[in-house]
Amino acid sequence: MTSETKHITLQAQDLSVGYFNKKAKKAVAETIDFSFSEGELIGLVGANGIGKSTLLRTLAGMQPRLSGAILVNEKPLEDYSTLALANQISVVLTEPPASKNLTVLELISLGRQPYTSWMGTLSEKDKTAVQNALQATETQSMAHRKCFELSDGQMQRVAIARALAQDTPIILLDEPTTHLDLYHRAYILKLLKKLASENKKTILFSTHEIDLAIQLSDTMLVMTGNANYFDTPCNLIEAGHFDALFPKDTIHFDKNTGRFTVRK
Amino acid sequence: MQTTQTYRVFFVVLLIALLAVFLANISLGSVSIPIDEVVKGIFGGNASKGTWNYIIIDYRLPKAITAILAGGGLAVSGLLMQTLFRNPLAGPFVLGLSSGASLGVALLILGAGAFGGFLGNALVSEWSLVIASAVGSFLVLLAVLMVTFRVKDTMAILIIGLMFGSVTAAVVAVLSYFSNAEKLQQYIFWSFGSLGNQSWEGIIILSCCAVLGLLIAVASSKSLNALLLGENYAKSMGLHIKRTTFAIILATSILAGAITAFAGPIAFVGLAVPHITRQFFKTSNHLVLIPAVLLCGSLLMLVCDTIAQLPFSEHTLPINAITSLVGAPVVIWLLVRKRKLLF
Q1: What is the SS3 assignment for A121?
Q2: B238 at interface of A, judged by CB pairs closer than 8 A
Q3: Interchain contact A86–B (C-beta under 8 A)
Q4: Looking at the partner chain, which of A91, A98, A107 has a beta carbon nearest the beta carbon of B236?
Q5: What residue stretches are annotated with the ABC transporter domain (chain A) (predicted)?
Q6: What is the pLDDT of residue B196?
Q7: Are B124 and B190 in contact (CB under 8 A)?
């Protein structure tokens, strides 16, 4: 396929996210604009408390937006029923599964819920999707282990496999690399990159690994509090937007190496 | 890994055990009846002695059926609550249903003292106890359901349920303080729980409630599975959280409410049986767990009742004490062996 205009899957226009507080709106982040296409891996970076998780929850339909518009496949988010949205967006949250007694296979199979009958039994198609998810995340060997036996890195791969089994064009991940060592952080992000390009998915992940995200993301959304920038990592570096992420007295962004260095 | 085949074997074993204990339960007691006579009495309608017939049909058979319904129903509602609140310590009475029932009965028995003499005694009949307990748990249920419509957080619902329990326990304590010894004893006997003395009408009503509650539970099994991941994940997979919470609380209330109305507040079974079942059925799929927990609950309750009626003696021990005496060591043993309480 050589279509120049890629299909746009997720779009935000002048979006403002936050909380409703006793009828008053409390905005956490405002004027967010972006449009994500299929096959795109998007890194979402920003300081703690800047509204990354709030934005992800709003995009996933878990909390209402304050103003602006969110378009999922060019249709307003609020036009989707809970079930219809589950066919479009899957999530990987920071919270672990409530029950650690689930086996890996059971947990991943739960991702098929939007497609199964009222009994929740898996059809052949569901089983294939689960097997594909196991394969893509290299979790076949632990399929019959219980979740409480897994390491953080393995658990994260299983959580991603569940989202894959849900088979949605859009996947949102909230800090998938926290608690992981350098190898596993790189492993997870490379996996996301592969899934985005090979399976034509739109994958948005929030992270504090800015240098890894710069190396692997197709585009990035930088939230600084005053303004939010959406562009390719190169353009963002050129424009000096990463410098606006943190107060400059402690760390600064080195354009040449593409990483932050501590001021001595 | 356990397959459907393994589960099938477990289910068959459980059913056979249930049938065996069921017959033993009817056969044993202050008057011991041979097993073949029991079978005759139940199916042929005629045991060789008239008194045996009377004992089987009018006393032991209804009691055994009540034990099966109460044990299974309480165990399933315990499972529902543990999943809904994602808390291994939850049981059928966390929402304050049993305290509601206790309040109803306490008001009836202890409050009837205020009317004095004849009227007071007339009020405290067998059916009025059932009605008072049903009304009590129904009112608490209504309060809890109203709360679930307003409060989103399931943990908040759990704490509100506990608060309801505290308030009703306090009212019962005040009532007890002002009551005479005789009334107090009557109330305490009710709180011991009792599976016996059920009329056949009562059993039909109880069965209807149990079937209704179980149907709602089975219909919710897919949602229950989703809740194992937590509310946010469940919602992201297309689950309506409020509708599901409502259905699960409704099923629990019907099951636990009806059972408490007929058999009194029976503790422990609802909390322990799901954990015991999980040791054998290594799955989190509620479509398997609900029938498994149902059978294990019925089995445990029948065993406890067989012990409670003290074979070859004229005494019957309070069932509420026996369930804990038999069940608690089992749970402790399982936990010491596994060193983990997971749900």
Answers
A1: coil
A2: yes
A3: yes
A4: A91
A5: 10-250
A6: 84
A7: no
Domain of B251: which CATH number? 1.10.3470.10
Residue B343 lies inside a defined structural domain of this protein: no
Q: How does DSSP classify residue A23?
A: T
- pLDDT tens for B61-82 read 999 999 999 999 999 999 999 9
Between helix B241-263 and helix B61-84 the angle, nearest 10°, is 150
Q: Does residue B66 lie in a domain region?
A: yes
**Cβ proximity of B310 and B317 under 8 Å:** yes
Give domain status of residue B38, yes or no: yes
Distance from CA of A115 to the nearest CA of B (A): 9
Q: In this complex, is the C-beta atom of B316 within 8 Å of any C-beta atom belonging to chain A?
A: no
Instruction: Name which of B282, B343, B319, B342 is nearest B63 in CA terms.
Output: B319
Amino acid sitting at position B331: V
Tally C-beta pairs within 8 A across A and B.
90
| Shortest CA distance from A85: residue in chain B | B238
The predicted structure's pLDDT at residue A23: 76
Chain A residues in contact with B229 by the CB 8 A cut-off are 97-99, 102, 107, 110, 162
Instruction: Determine if residue B151 is left, alpha or beta; phi over 0 gives left, psi from -120 to 50 gives alpha, anything else beta.
Output: beta
Token readout for B47 is 């045991």
Percentage of residues in chain A having pLDDT higher than 70:
98
Measured between beta carbons, the chain A residues lying within 8 angstroms of B343 are 99, 101
Q: Range of B9's domain?
A: 4-338
Given a cut of 90, is residue A205 above it in pLDDT? yes
Q: Give me the mean pLDDT over the B263-292 stretch.
A: 90
Total domain count for chain B?
Answer: 1
pLDDT band at B128 (very low <50, low <70, confident <90, very high): confident
Q: B120-129, B256-265, B309-318: which range is least confident on average?
A: B120-129
Nearest CA in chain A to B1: A144
Closest-CA distance, A76 to chain B, in angstroms, reads 17
Q: Using the beta-carbon criterion (under 8 Å), do B342 and A62 form an inter-chain contact?
A: no
Q: Does residue B32 carry a pLDDT above 80?
A: yes
**Could you give all domains of chain A from N- to C-terminal order, each with its CATH number?**
1-88+169-264 (3.40.50.300), 96-167 (no CATH)
Measure the CA–CA gap between B70 and B295, rounded to whole angstroms: 11
- Rounded to an integer, the average pLDDT of B251-277 is 89
Burial of A122 by CB count in 10 Å (0-12 exposed, 13-18 middle, 19+ buried)? middle
pLDDT value at residue B147? 81
Q: What is the pLDDT of residue B22?
A: 95
Give the pLDDT of residue A150.
Answer: 93
